[in-house]
Automatic annotation (TrEMBL):
Protein name, entry field: 6-phosphogluconate dehydrogenase NADP-binding domain-containing protein
SUPFAM superfamilies: 6-phosphogluconate dehydrogenase C-terminal domain-like (SSF48179), NAD(P)-binding Rossmann-fold domains (SSF51735)
One protein family per Pfam: NAD_binding_2
Annotated Gene Ontology cellular component terms: cytosol
Domain annotation 3-hydroxyisobutyrate dehydrogenase-like NAD-binding: ranges: 164-284
Taxonomic lineage of the native organism: Eukaryota, Viridiplantae, Streptophyta, Embryophyta, Tracheophyta
Similarity comment text for this entry: Belongs to the HIBADH-related family. NP60 subfamily.
Protein task: Catalyzes the NADPH-dependent reduction of glyoxylate to glycolate as well as succinic semialdehyde (SSA) to gamma-hydroxybutyrate in vitro. May function in redox homeostasis and play a role in oxidative stress tolerance by detoxifying glyoxylate and SSA generated in glycolate metabolism and GABA metabolism, respectively.
UniProt domain 6-phosphogluconate dehydrogenase NADP-binding: residue ranges: 2-161
Length: 293
């Protein structure tokens, strides 16, 4: 199977490499073209523009930072729309809002192409290991065509029906994840300032009802101040913002998510946006704990 791949950031690079490892022929494009070289070394071909990739490949996957990047790659000059058409499929796996996804879907369908949104749950390591959870929606025929690729990229894929449902599901999941990260950060800070060992807190949490892979993975590195980015904080804040907007549209009160969003915004204002989202701990330590914000 030949696929195009647009966007070689933390996730896109790992996902495209995984497809190559599993025998897919992959043509890559990245806004900063130099980043394609690592994939070329693994056997990828390079397309000079998104349009060139779509012209060459029947199926093209995108993994881009946010709604504005997702729209730009489709609608701008040399974008996906210039070459999409009958018999071609476009699969956007970026985390965006439902409105962005619907806009892309309508434009692609108008040109005769097929569209699936397929954001993923799971971070850098699951992307490297092909263990993502894929939250797809849109054209069912294209979804079925993509199953061999989804089987390589993920451990499970859900087909959620009409366009927008994948985007919304992803935002709900990440809203919960961001709030949990804030709760963990506050707990570590409270333990520390009240004379308890934060490491012992992690050990206690791990044995009780709230144990989870995220606390297990992130907790120890947070205590070491290691925020090497797997999931950049600026993207988590984008997801909180988009989830809150979904809450606004549906008149759902989300005080916990709103407070968490404020902490992520504060972290961004302190220049922590490119670090891992667990760096929000630095803000919560600064708010009352022993650490420096
Ligand atoms: N990291 C993670 O753990 C996870 C991330 N996600 C989601 O996946 C998406 C990608 O995340 P991640 O790989 O971490 O992000 P990165 O910031 O590492 O990569 C972002 C990618 O988007 C490209 N890009 C940004 N702006 C534009 C633009 N205007 N036009 C064209 N390309 C652009 C970047 O190109 P360039 O190299 O030129 O900057 C890069 O390829 C995001 O939506 C994120 O929320 C989902 C699950 C997990
Ligand atoms: O979007 C981030 C993730 O870990 O999932």
């Amino acid at each position: 199977m030949e696929v195009g791949f647009l966007g070689l950031g933390i996730m896109g690079k790992a996902m495209a490499a995984n497809l190559l490892r599993h025998g897919f022929r992959v043509t890559v494009w990245n806004r900063t073209l130099a980043k394609c070289q690592e994939l070329v070394a693994l056997g990828a071909a390079v397309g000079e523009t998104p349009a060139a990739v779509v012209a060459k490949c029947r199926y093209t996957i995108a993994m881009l930072s946010d709604p504005s990047a997702a729209l730009s790659v489709v609608f701008d000059k040399d974008g996906v729309l210039e070459q999409i058409g009958d018999g071609k499929g476009y699969v956007d796996m970026s985390t965006v809002d439902a409105t962005t996804s619907c806009q892309i879907s309508q434009a692609i369908k108008q040109k005769g192409g097929a569209f699936v949104e397929a954001p993923v749950s799971g971070s850098k390591k699951p992307a490297e290991d092909g263990q993502l959870v894929i939250l797809a929606a849109g054209d069912k025929v294209l979804y079925d065509d993509m199953v061999p690729a989804f089987d390589v990229l993920g451990k499970k894929s859900f087909f959620l029906g009409e366009i927008g449902n994948g985007a919304k599901m992803k935002l709900v999941v990440n809203m919960i994840m961001g709030s949990m990260m804030n709760a963990l950060s506050e707990g570590l800070s409270l333990a520390d300032t009240s004379g308890l060992s934060p490491q012992t807190l992690l050990d206690v949490l791990d044995l009780g009802a709230v144990t989870n892979p995220m606390f297990k993975l992130k907790g120890p590195s947070m205590l070491q101040g290691n925020y090497s980015p797997a999931f950049p904080l600026k993207h988590q804040q984008k997801d909180m913002r988009l989830a809150l907007s979904l809450g606004d549209e549906n008149a759902i009160s989300m005080p916990v998510a709103a407070a968490s969003n404020e902490a992520f915004k504060k972290a961004r204002s302190l220049g922590l946006g490119d670090l891992d989202f667990s760096a929000v701990y630095e803000v919560l330590k600064g708010a009352g704990g022993s650490g420096q914000a």
